Amino acid sequence: MMLDTVAHLRQLSPWLKPGAVYVDAVAADPNDVDVEELGLLDGLHGQARHERAELVRWLLARGFGVDQIRNEFSPMLLPAIRMIGDDGTSVSAREIAESSGVSLELLQRLHRAVGLVCAEDADACLQSRVDAESVLGAARLVDIGLDPAQVVLIVRLLMDGLTGAAVTMRHAALHASLHPGATELELAQAFEVLAHDAEPLLGPMVDALLRLALRHSFETEAINAIERAAGTLPGAREVAVAFADLVGFTRLGEQMPPEDLGLLALRLAELARTVVESPVQFVKTIGDAVMLVCSDPRKLLETVLDLVDAVAADDFPRLRAGLAFGPAVNRAGDWYGSPVNVASRVTSAAPAGTVRVTEAARKAIGDPAGIEWSVAETRRLKGIRGEVLLHGARRPPAAELPPWGDESVT
């Protein structure tokens, strides 16, 4: 049935039109089905009931079972879900472990890492086959010598990143398919065609991007002589850490629709990625803030100043940034250590439109051409013991703001 559907869509996808009903040539006539007796329309009335009945007849004709339709949160997505691998069969963890040769214990750890339900009874058929088998490739990493705990961590991090990407792809698909007055059946047909066209692109896309990230990870961290001699993982490094955030973002949240607020944060992240060049690393976004790291504090400061200039030239709220320097460790793609905490606090204390730099970072940066320093001042920062000496950095010619920025906007 799956092969028939794919072949059918290959022929029809260029010509599928909203409002038309397409059924397989071998399917039963959907008009012969009494949908009212199946209990699939409960709670629906009027136009919604009519549309669901129309959708159910079409799904039944496409080979979907009554239980599948009943158990699916959004039945109109069933054809698209099938197109990306779910054939509707359920399996147990033990069945997958025995057929693949992967230990049951490792399989269940990997299942939990990707968010699948793990029953106490390993013989319970709770997962779709495609979901249960999705971690088998990762399990093979143990066979080539990787520590199982590290493999579980890798899988969890991949799933964390891919989940956000998948949600965004779903949103993009909805945007591409929705039109005023679309019925459930029309959307189901549109989603199926879109899934069919996108499915062969997914594997190569994710593969290429993962390889890109892996190559860059090799470029940005080396193992020093002491670590080679001891046979230990890379430890703490002297790095510069910077945060930059939008001033007044919380107030904007009370004035702007959530969608527009989210787009504003995304635009900041896009601008940051635009100005970042190796060896500076874009680490992550945290709400309206971006985090950057670099072993060269001078290069990081130049990048932060570039970001401040880019934001000032765009239609953005004003930006503030803080930069600190010291030992930090990279684990699972994130950074931990004193400069991370200090840089975050410095950013929160920086006036709008300014960049603040700690004393340690100021000494490490020196006096490069093209950067002006303002008179230092000491500040008490939340969560940081004692007073912290901060320097202001900017590019000449002097900005319209005083050297320490607009103190009235925080």
TrEMBL record:
CDD domains per UniProt: CHD
A GO molecular-function annotation: adenylate cyclase activity
SMART domains membership: CYCc (SM00044)
Entry superkingdom: Bacteria
Cited Pfam families: Ad_Cy_reg (PF16701), Guanylate_cyc (PF00211)
GO biological processes: cAMP biosynthetic process; intracellular signal transduction
Gene3D superfamilies (UniProt xref): Nucleotide cyclase
InterPro entries assigned to the protein according to its UniProt record, in alphabetical order: A/G_cyclase, Ad_Cy_reg, Adenylyl/Guanylyl_Cyclase_3/4, Nucleotide_cyclase
Guanylate cyclase domain segment(s): 240-347
PANTHER family documented for this protein: ADENYLATE CYCLASE, TERMINAL-DIFFERENTIATION SPECIFIC-RELATED, PH-SENSITIVE ADENYLATE CYCLASE RV1264
Family the UniProt entry places it in: Belongs to the adenylyl cyclase class-3 family.
Protein name per Swiss-Prot or TrEMBL: PH-sensitive adenylate cyclase
